[in-house]
């Protein structure tokens, strides 16, 4: 049985929608104090209110992962309000599409700044507080796209997600002797708000490409993050968990 998360503080960036919201819900159900970081204050507050009925507390902290001072202020406020930070889920990310012919430096930089530099900013801003935790945990939301597979039109996204794993491994080595683990979850096709409007035929076609014949849920990613954040996972660092229903397994 996993540890009880009562009294532990969990930060989730990009926590107001999609996978981030699923992660926030899972930790709140497990009794954690959940700090939801998002650029949009209104959506972050709405998410916090939605999960307020769960055992754990939830509060919104508007901040931008691309801006280090913004993240430092948010982490300071979180630590003051909850008495510290134990777990950081670096989840914020964007995934606009652009072919190589359409790609511009601005489009490339926008994705890398959010997905990769945003992860670095999240970790750097949280380190002073994670070092004081009994068992500091960092969980990065990467993707199967980039580290394992490719997808046309997503070269900038794939590069950003592969870069997160290089960062993860080196950070894991730096922080290991301080009791902080750094791991990543790699989602496959997950049903989020962005996909729900694509139509039943489109969703079914996506599901058919997965051996389990169904799309993953945002909670599926949340439970993988919950495991990596647990004390029971304390001897795991610099590793990845693919959560894709077997999507990456077939040879053809």
TrEMBL record:
<dbReference type="InterPro" id="IPR050259">
    <property type="entry name" value="SDR"/>
</dbReference>
<dbReference type="InterPro" id="IPR002347">
    <property type="entry name" value="SDR_fam"/>
</dbReference>
<keyword id="KW-0560">Oxidoreductase</keyword>
<dbReference type="Pfam" id="PF13561">
    <property type="entry name" value="adh_short_C2"/>
</dbReference>
<dbReference type="GO" id="GO:0016491">
    <property type="term" value="F:oxidoreductase activity"/>
</dbReference>
<protein>
    <submittedName>
        <fullName>3-oxoacyl-(ACP) reductase</fullName>
    </submittedName>
</protein>
<dbReference type="GO" id="GO:0008206">
    <property type="term" value="P:bile acid metabolic process"/>
</dbReference>
<dbReference type="InterPro" id="IPR057326">
    <property type="entry name" value="KR_dom"/>
</dbReference>
<comment type="similarity">
    <text>Belongs to the short-chain dehydrogenases/reductases (SDR) family.</text>
</comment>
<feature type="domain" description="Ketoreductase">
    <location>
        <begin position="8"/>
        <end position="188"/>
    </location>
</feature>
<dbReference type="InterPro" id="IPR036291">
    <property type="entry name" value="NAD(P)-bd_dom_sf"/>
</dbReference>
